[in-house]
Amino acid sequence: MAHTTGDSDRPDQSMVPEAEFRRLLSASRTSLSRIAREADEVSAALEAAAAGLARLRPAERSAVDAELVVGQERIAELLDRVPSLAQEEIISMHPGLVLPSTELADGMQRNHNLPEGVAMRTIHLTPMSRVPRGALHLQSLVDHGVSVRLANALPFRLIIVDRYWAMAPASAAEGEMALMLFRGGSMVQLLMKVFELCWLMASPLEDTAETVVDEPTPQQRVILRAMMAGMKDEAVARELGVSIRTYRRLLAGLMDLMGVESRFQAGAKAMSMGWLQ
C-alpha cells in the first residue's frame, strides 16, 4: 500500500478497520495456541527430569556427579574449557535476550577453538534472527558448519558436550551467577531428552528466514510509543517540534521501513521486536 504525504488526501489510520483487526487477532490466537502447546510439551519433559532425579535413592545419588560453579569468572573459565573437552559433539540452547555484540564475539571465538570434526547443534529464540547483530551471529555459526534452529520458546540455557558433560543454570546465594556441571549419569540423559524435544519442535534457520529490521532511531521510538499510547498526530508533531505534514511523512517512512500497512501492525511489530521496552 502506498503512503501519501499530503494532509488532505491521506486517510487517518488511527482507527484500524474491524476486518483487519479480527484477522490479526485470529492469527495471534493461532500462534499463541501453538506456542502454548510447545510450552506444555517442554514442561512435561522438565517434570519427567525432576521426577527422575527425585526417584533416586540416597545410595544412587552418588552416581549423579554434579558440581555447583559459582561466580561469573569461574563460569567464564569453564565455558572457555568447553572446546578442549569436546571430541564428538556440542549441543546448546539459548533463551533470553540477544546478547551484546562483544559477548557474541566471545562465543564465536570459543567455536573457533574446537577440534576438527566436532559437530555442533544449537537452538536460539526466533527474535535472535530479527536483530542485526543476532542475524549476523547466526549466519556466522552456519558458515562455520553449525546446525542452527529457531524456537518460539526454550526452557533454560543448556550446554551438553559429548553426551557426558552438561551445564545448566542454578541458584546461588546473594544473586550470584551459578550453573550446575553434571558428569554422566541419569541427569545428563534426562537433559539430553529435553534438548532433543526442543530440537524437534524448532525450525531450521533456513526455513524461518526473517526480515532484519534496523533498530529505530530515538525519534522513531518516540513515534512508536506515541502511537501505542493513542496520542493524536498533532500532539506528537508538537512533541517532536515538527509540522503535522512532516510528522505524517516521518510516520509513513517508518511504516515503509517496518514493512507494515497500518498503525496497529506497526505497534504489534514494535512490541514483538522489543523496541518499546
UniProtKB/TrEMBL annotation:
Any GO molecular function: DNA binding
InterPro entries according to UniProt: Sig_transdc_resp-reg_C-effctor, Tscrpt_reg_LuxR_C, WalR-like, WH-like_DNA-bd_sf
Transmembrane residue ranges: none
Gene Ontology biological process terms, A to Z: regulation of DNA-templated transcription
Residues annotated as domain HTH luxR-type: 213-270
The UniProt record lists the keyword Cell inner membrane: no
Keyword entries, A-Z: DNA-binding
Protein name: Transcriptional regulator
Organism, scientific name: Streptomyces fradiae (Streptomyces roseoflavus)
The encoding gene: fomR
